[in-house]
Amino acid sequence: MFVSARSDYALRAMLAVAAAGGGGDGDQAGELVKAASLAEVQDIPLSFLQGILLDLRRAGLLHSHRGADGGYALTRPADEITVGDVLRAVGGSLTTVRGLPAERAGYHGVAAGLTDVWLAVHGAIATVVDSTTLADLLTHAPTSS
User: Fold this and answer.
1) Domain region containing 97
2) Kind and range of the H or E element at 62?
3) How many domains does one find in the chain?
4) Comparing C-alpha atoms, which of 129, 118, 127 is closest to residue 91?
5) pLDDT over 50 at 67, yes or no
6) Strands 96-97 and 100-101
7) By the number of CB atoms within 10 A of the CB, which of 59, 69, 81, 127 ranks highest?
């Protein structure tokens, strides 16, 4: 598994929105987070972040609200959004072999067993990222003084 800057930035942005209490529970009581604020606080280039936020919105992980008081909020509570959800939203497959999803990597002859190895690696990664939620990560975050 290769964690791209895009994937890292997407997770950092989602954690920042979750930490701000940005929605997710249907009452919109949390603070809406502006893209410019996310970019500044997380040190992410704004133009790059805007594309990531669009992917997260299209994947149904974020709501966007327009206007002067607009910003981004989670569509579900942080304990219902996994790291795997975010990674798949911005990067597609969790594991690739020569640019293809692990399940499509085909071998023959003496290398035939590699397919099973790549599928096992994929399964192990999926187990970790699909069982770790944004809320899990926020409970391990240090609090600012």
Assistant:
1) 5-139
2) strand 62-65
3) 1
4) 129
5) yes
6) antiparallel
7) 81
